[in-house]
Amino acid sequence: MKFLGNVLFLAACVAAAQSPQANQPVAASPVPVEMAQLAVTVKQQFGDTFSIPAKFTTPVITADFDGDGVEDVAIVANSKDPLPDSYAFKYEVADPYHAYFGFGDPRLTSSFRADPEHTHHLLVIFGSGKEAWRSVTPKGKFVLVNVPFDSVEVGRMLLSKKKPPIFVIKALEAQVMDSAIWWDVKKKRWRWEPGDTVQ
What we know:
By secondary structure, this protein is of the alpha+beta class. The chain has a domain of 117 residues. The protein is built from four helices and nine strands. The strands form two sheets. A five-stranded mixed sheet has the order 1-2-4-5-3, with helices on one face. A four-stranded antiparallel sheet has the order 6-7-8-9.
């Protein structure tokens, strides 16, 4: 009987050790983003002028783009004029692509439509608190204009040998090149860099 009691006690200890404790962090499992909810989020955070294009199979990517340990999001969206609602919805419009070439004032460049195939914008929400990018009051909101891409995905880039790699938005152009869009923590601005030419 004593042997059976010891076995049960040992089994209980093993089960307790395998179950997550209240004070231990549990890795978050990826939750798929529903398109209907995503459209509601875009409307609430950026206004009615933005819509999610139907042809994009992956219009949303998530990662910690600003390095604060909270999940952020980048959403592909369309808008004929992203500037007017920036005041009411408190988002910043940036043009990291043209800034790379020395001309990145979005008040002027947001009207550039040189390539009709690349007219989409990237909406970026920096997450805040437990709800991360789904928070009603996120840490920051941005509309990135004029970045040429056919699709986007999460990438990583090493800026310094002394620091771990950062998460970036990889902008992929099927017939031209890949590029990286990343948040410069020191200068508090978005940057664009060309990558490898697609063969």
